[in-house]
């Protein structure tokens, strides 16, 4: 049976905001394959705290494929084998939530958490976080790089197998009385409403002169607050910013970010309005 260690990094607090995945395959008591991919999350909203952890920026994933496309080649092995993850409730939660966000049903899965493995096989008052366990075992890796984290997770499981003199993950599970967690797959979630160009009549009813037209407050590089609004000049719709570059008619970095759905620096709580505006802009011939 295939055994794969997996690790996800996320853009923000949502479980369906995966921005990177790492995987490491175990066969014959060693790591035989490693893969890592960047993922474009459903919205390019990166929390500063998450960026500080993994260093991934919206620009790094803007042109990358989404979750379904990235994971398609890996899902058969994940569904048929045993998954390892360090703090597995998080990574399995990301996997299931992201599949549902793509409109896909999560398959039945079997997994083992290497945090729990380490607590039984390598207990230590300092704790069993990935970096701490790896450090005690002499595993060298770059923490919070998804590929390296998956590799370290796999090596922790292999070290536990050596310590317990077991030959596979099933034997390790039995030796330390830590059963595999099994979760059933569910039916596909209801399909999302299709997205497409907005009707021309709807476009014409949305005018910059409307009092209720959205305004997007954004944070500048020095912490200043600017406003980006939908503007119409010479019959063309565009986003305009109140920053210095925007006032001189330039397409500033704030506008460029919002135009691709990057809401990392959005201060106002109206990301849904941005999706509507981007639909309008996409519908303009």
TrEMBL record:
Cited InterPro entries: Ribonucl_H (IPR013520), RNaseH-like_sf (IPR012337), RNaseH_sf (IPR036397), Znf_SWIM (IPR007527)
Pfam family, any one: RNase_T
GO BP of this protein: DNA metabolic process
Transcription listed as a keyword: no
Gene that encodes the chain: dinG_1
Source species of the chain: Methylobacterium hispanicum
Ranges of residues in domain SWIM-type: 226-263
GO molecular function: 3'-5' exonuclease activity; nucleic acid binding; zinc ion binding
Listed GO CC annotations: cytosol
Protein name: 3'-5' exonuclease DinG
Keyword flag Amino-acid biosynthesis: no
Source organism superkingdom: Bacteria
Keywords assigned by UniProt, alphabetized: Exonuclease, Hydrolase, Metal-binding, Nuclease, Zinc, Zinc-finger
